[in-house]
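SEVERITY: medium
COMPONENT: batch folding queue
REPORTER: lab tech (J.R.)

DESCRIPTION
The queue accepted two submissions in a row. Attaching both inputs and their returned structure tokens so the on-call engineer can compare them side by side.

ATTACHMENT 1
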Amino acid sequence: MKWAPDKCKTGDMIRIPIGQFYHIGIFVSEDEVIQFGLPPIPENIMPNEQIAVVATDIDVFSCGKIVEVAKLDFKEKLRRYKPQKTVELARSRIGETGYNIIHNNCEHFAYECVFGVSYCSQEDELRQKWRKYQSDNQD
């Protein structure tokens, strides 16, 4: 999967950069982006147990940053749910809690809505870095 600035369409997975990480959500319309928690900027920080799946408009989601859209490859397009099902799944989870920055975050949520599988590329990258660190530092 690649990411690029583009016009968002209903059911698209979208993201914005927040420091070294990304905040990811599901685009429904300019008036509705469904995401697991608000973008983690200082004014939105709250305890994990209060973070929930919410719907906001694109301006709240983007925080003034450029929105990137997931560009699915051929196999990903075959695996993904239809956009309307993606939106239905995302809407059905509004109010859900259980946020965990490593194991249940905004990217896990978006992947589940688009592909039906909980996955986080950012988690995978951290695990790979940790494994490399461990192997580089074995005596």
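ATTACHMENT 2
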Amino acid sequence: MQFQQGQFLGNYQKRRESFGVSIAEMTPTVPEHDVETHTHDDAHFLLLMDGLYLSSARGMPDICNETAIIMNPPGTRHRDCFRGTHGRFLTVSMSGEDWRAATKDFPVGDYALRMDATALLSAYRIWRELHQWDDASALVIEAESHTLFSEARLANKQVECPAPQWLARTRELLRDTSLETPRFSELAKTADLHPVYFARAFRHRYGCSHGEYLRRCRLERATGLLRDKRLSLATIAMQCGFVDQSHFNHSFHQTYRVSPGEFRLMAKQEAMVHCIQDAKRAVC
């Protein structure tokens, strides 16, 4: 199977075109056992927002049940799919020709890979624009798309030039940290490095400080928890390691430009649309 630009295994919930970039929020329609190996003519970033996702992209687990963003360059051949037909994802796609023109001055790799937490910031801003489209949205989409290219370049560099074991171990420790914030001196001691060199090496590799990276990872986790309406904002703040709900609200809004409540409301509204559509199909 060969998919043309903007063609995916799913139903379109919302879709926009902007300067050659196609943005769409979708729900899966094809069960796992019916998905065949296929090739995408276009290039696209896929933001996994809900559901269990199976992907062969580098850096992805066998089954992913958390928010993630994947880069798929032109010609990607895979059998990526959802387990079942429950799920939600965002695609940011463009033609292979436009992709090559945008990346001609720097390599981003020719294989699918999972991008880091920092790329989620741009993906969610694109998702927000899709839901709150106005005259300025096209410019936002163009700028955020270039940011995704930049993050893709960094992700490719990290794959091609693996980080030293101590640096990768530190990053994973920060990703796994939820309630307790490790002291910087303890992290440096674990890596057996002088704190000054340790701080410089981490920022050079990942483009941010240890604290900034930890906050981004916690916010990434929060976006998943916000879809569970049984959890209060105060509970989510606690589970993600924020001092209190006020601190969580401020950090979330500063990063995603929407409040946690607004983010939850958008997800709730989309879920209501899904329920109505399912009901209509059942009647038919």
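NOTES FROM REPORTER
The two ends are 30 Å apart (CA to CA).
No errors were logged for either attachment.
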